[in-house]
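hey so i finally got around to running both of the ones u sent me last week. sorry it took forever, my laptop kept dying halfway thru and i had to restart like 3 times lol. anyway pasting them below in the order u listed, first the sequence line then the structure token line for each. didnt double check formatting much so if smth looks off just lmk and ill redo it

first one:
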Amino acid sequence: MKPNRIYNIACFTLLLFYAVSCKKNKTPQQPVPVVPEEEVWDGSYELSTDIFPNPERGFIRTFSVYSETQPVDLSRLQQLRGENTSLILIVFYFDKFKDKSLSTAQLTLIQNNLDRVRQSGLKTILRFAYTDAMSGATAGDAPLNIVEEHMDQLAPVLEANKDIIAFIQAGFIGAWGEWHSSTNNLATTENQRKVITKLLSVTPQEIMVQVRTPLFKQQIYNTTAPITEEIAYTSEDKARVGHHNDCFLSGGNEYGTYSNIAQEKAYISNEALYVPTGGETCPPTGGYSPNCREGQKEMKLLKWTYLNLDWYPATIEAWKTSGCFDEFQRNLGYRLVLHSSDIASQATVNSSLAIKIKIANKGFAPLYNKKDTYLILKNTANGQFYEIKLNVDVRKCKPEGSLSIEETLNLANIPVGDYQLYLKIADSNADLKTKSEYSVRLGNKDVWYTDYGGINRLQHQLKIVTN
């Protein structure tokens, strides 16, 4: 995450190794199979290789904000969409508040940063921590009672800004908030459980929280079984906990990220059908090469939705030199595409319309946050838009899979006329619904329009006629 981190990485490895090495190995679980999407397209829609930003996914940038300092530079945030970045990580350090309440100035600083994220058309991952050092005068986190008090203070801020918070990393414990090296005995399963339970309670239900290693989640919830479709997207705590790996593609156990590598990777592969994975790379160890093939294999297996461009720079630059950076930029997270559609060309006013639309996911991961999907009708004579909300949940379009939308829609109150048809996949928050930066662009040629808050042309015309 930061340049001085490399000097502390060996200590971090030992801490995590001793924390996890006493656990028994278990038979590796096999990832849940996903029905592959056949590569036979009906010719209606052509796939695009264009690179473009989409909400809550892709390569990210990381910003560290220390106590009562200045917010992140607005002009820099506004540049990011031009770099195909839609998501950032902000780590707020409470270095001045290890033994007291957060000040009004500190809470205002957090809000000012989130205002700038919204103003820039971005979303953010949040992490809160007390130190970016493992030793020295600035090292050390806060006792549990202070951590819990700070979470209570953060609750109104999280609720007020839930529209532009993609995920929250568990944070608070140890250096960088990475759940090790605690000076207040917080890096125990009992205290980690208290921290994650409290954080989930103050975080809006629709926002998921990520923990640093799979073993942490398994220990907290006392199970190695991944979550299933039956509890996915519910308010149950473990259904809201995903994973971040801040030493991804570094080889071996990835600086203590894994205890039983095969079992825990399979566990994450299954979990990541429903909860997010992401993080950053680290310096490779033991002769391991995080080359293009390895990067693609691991991102597909673990369903990576975002990756930090700011660390580890040598790995990122090697991908650029080798020619796979663009592929990763396209496929990190979801990449939904139109596959086929079947919609009548004529309907009677105030009648119904049957639609069949098939979409596929060519990305490494699914969407994790709820979206609202609409059929949009645009009157070709006067430009008037009409929308009909669909019942589909696009989170069910898993990587290498497809999803069929088959619904019969009510055309009441849509007047006689000729219409172009579009698909809109919008943010579920009403304030962001009308902003194209927060709508999902599909990966087909010549379908995306920023009109009406971001819509995808279905290449169908509908004539509504009188009885």
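and the second one:
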Amino acid sequence: MNVSAKVERIEANGDVAHLMKEMGQRARAASRALALAEPVRKTAALKAAAQAIRDNTSAILQANAEDIAAASSGKLTDAFRDRLSLDAKRVAAMADGVDVVANLSDPVGSVMAAWDRPNGLKIERVRTPLGVIAVIYESRPNVTADAGALCVKAGNAVILRGGSESFHSSRAIHRALVQGLESQGLPADAIQLVPTRDRAAVGELLSGLGGTIDVVVPRGGKALVGRVEAEARVPVFAHLEGICHVYVHAAADLEMAKQIVLNAKMRRTGVCGAAETLLVDRAAAATHLKPLVDMLIEAGCEIRGDETTRATDKRVVAATEQDWSTEYLDAILSVKVVDGLQAAIDHIERYGTHHTDSIVTNDTKAAEKFLSEVDSAIVLHNASTQFADGGEFGFGAEIGIATGRLHARGPVGVEQLTSFKYRVLGTGQTRP
């Protein structure tokens, strides 16, 4: 029985739990084989997968067109369409990202630290795979390639559960990844895609599939992340909303500030690193505020501002208290004038989500204070918040941006998808 027929039978019988349990068992077996795979084979498999993505560009775009057509039956926001849509350039970039991951140093077995004890024992801390990772994501089909490549490079098996909106796109990309694995004799079950849109599959993943899942990574909106954090029976790598700030300090160069703010907000409004709030120092407001507001409005961005910001332009909408804690993921920006550096830091601490925040200034001491005191996973000086991306960090790709404080923080790349163990080498020592 082929996979499609099997899925149809299982869905008809309502036996999603059985389907998912089988996937977990196969993933666990594949993870053991992958953990022992030679680095050269994993690298070659990912390079083959990247080429398979390129070779199947037409099929991937056709599948994506099906997803876009189906999603268009409802009301699509521009940000949602941007996240879901693929074109030849994006498919090429996806393949290039897999290639970059393939060329990264293999983390498995690398010695993180080593030391000798007075009794002659030699102790090493060595990187090991996490095991089996479940990745639950929404409308971004590129996550299929990013997550699959990163998990394999780190020696992990992965079960992918994409959003129903990107169902066909994810299946086409997954087929290319499996081609890469099989070309090098690695188990196809190392990268599995949940073959049903039944929402019960998510609940099964969160249960841990009978102990076969080691960690869950959600990538999507607040509702998805909230459900995963509330229901998961296994550890979670998650980020909250990306309420990212750009603070234009009193010593900011206006032209630099304009370039950074425009890019941070408008390059891609639907990504988690897009700026959602602009803070302008009152000491710079007379010279910087109106040019920044005019530029953004002319670029098609709606401004929701405080009283001072509204006074600069009648097109500015009055900001509410809720605006300061809203992730728009759209061409909307809240703007506030603050009384100095400390006030900016306090605002970010109160309303931010510890994701990504930037300061624009030529004052190095102010920058140092901001970078030291803003408790976000990523803090930047004189750079756009849209650099919050694993590829831009040199990781090749990312599964997501973790905003917690345990294990992984910031872009979750290959190294963050490993754990470690201790190897203790002796010459017959016993403990007195």
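quick thing i noticed on the 2nd:
DSSP finds 15 helices and 16 strands in the chain.
anyway thats it, ttyl
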